[in-house]
Amino acid sequence: MSYLRTAILKSLCSSTVLRQPIKQTAIRCLPVLQQTQRTFVAASTSDNKPPSLPLQKEEKALPPPKDPREDMFHATLPFIPQYGWSMESLIHGARCLGYPSVAHGMFPGGEAGLIDAYLLYQRKMFADKVKEKYLKGELERLSINERVKVLILLRLDMNKPYIKKWPEALAIMARPSNVSMSLKHLADIADDIWYYAGDRSPDMNWYTKRGSLAAIYSAADLFMTRDLSQNYIETERFLDRRLDQAAWLGSSARQLGTMLTFGAKSMVSALANRGGRI
After folding, report:
1. CA distance 73 to 115
2. What pLDDT shows up at residue 56?
3. Are 218 and 266 in contact (CB under 8 A)?
4. Lowest mean pLDDT among 1-5, 109-113, 200-204
5. Structure letter (DSSP) for residue 15
6. Which of 197, 227, 222 is CA-nearest to residue 209?
7. What is the pTM of this model?
């Protein structure tokens, strides 16, 4: 490298065109020498290494695949007010998505699977609505019992779009094969309402409160299917009477049994009056 630099300097200094001092000429020639050095090094290394490939753009992570059951569920909901909680609603939902009619098999148990998916969806929506109420400050100044009433009414209100067909859902859930599923959802509703109302009691009252509330909620749910009053005002009055009778604090096992028996009898009676098949 030094030999090449010396040779170029001598050539430039001996030129007749350049009549400048050697030192000044060498300074001006420095950029040329540096460029020559870079070219020489690049040429010498290019023989040993393959040309570098251009950097590839960073690939974005693909979103997780969407569950087709979710699309099927939302496509079926608009048909429930007309066709009820039936296979026919599922078939219409499948056709909207271009699925074959056998796509109803996505929901194990058919109609019961559709109701199960609906209650799971409603539980998530209920949590979002409660959060919104807390953010707006609508529940902060209320007592726990007052919150319980507000949250029960909020949960009942979510069934209004399907209230005319809701007795069908209750009848399907009352079938022996679906009882365990029904009781689980009822327990989840009662637990969610107490939890969001602020109850954290670790004692025996935890069970009595939720058992009593489950009976009250199921009775109000059934009453609402027969309520023809404006804005379901009679359902709210019915709920007020049941909450007054509950005596949350100090509930005994006997009281709990009475409330559960009342709820069970109300369910069977209402289904019989509505022509539900058990």
Report:
1. 10
2. 52
3. yes
4. 1-5
5. -
6. 197
7. 0.68
Secondary structure in 3-state letters for 200-259: CCCCCHHHHHHHHHHHHHHHHHHHHHHCCCHHHHHHHHHHHHHHHHHCCCCCCHHHHHHH
**In whole angstroms, how far apart are CA 42 and each of 31, 49, 55?**
16, 10, 20
Per the CB < 8 A criterion, the answer to whether 155 and 119 are in contact is: no
Residue closest to 274 by CA, chosen among 223, 218, 233: 223
Nearest CA to 151 among 91, 76, 239? 239
Angle of helix 233-246 versus helix 144-157 axis, rounded to 10: 140
CA–CA gap between residue 206 and residue 191 (Å, rounded): 9
Q: Over 50: is that where the pLDDT of 261 sits?
A: no
Q: Residue 133, Cβ neighbours under 10 Å: how many? A: 17
Token couple for 231: 């804005």
- Kindly indicate the confidence band of residue 205, based on its pLDDT and cuts at 50, 70 and 90: confident
The pLDDT of residue 130 is above 90: yes
With a CB cutoff of 8 Å and minimum separation 6, the contacts of 20 are: 28
Overall residue count recorded for the chain in this entry: 278
- More reliable by pLDDT, 29 or 88: 88
Half-sphere exposure of 87 (CA within 13 A, CB side): 8
CA pair distance 192, 196, nearest whole angstrom: 6
Q: Which residues contact 265 (CB under 8 A, 6 or more apart)?
A: none
Sign of torsion over alpha carbons 220, 221, 223, 224: positive
User: Would you state the structure tokens that stand for residue 212, as one six-digit string?
Assistant: 């009593």
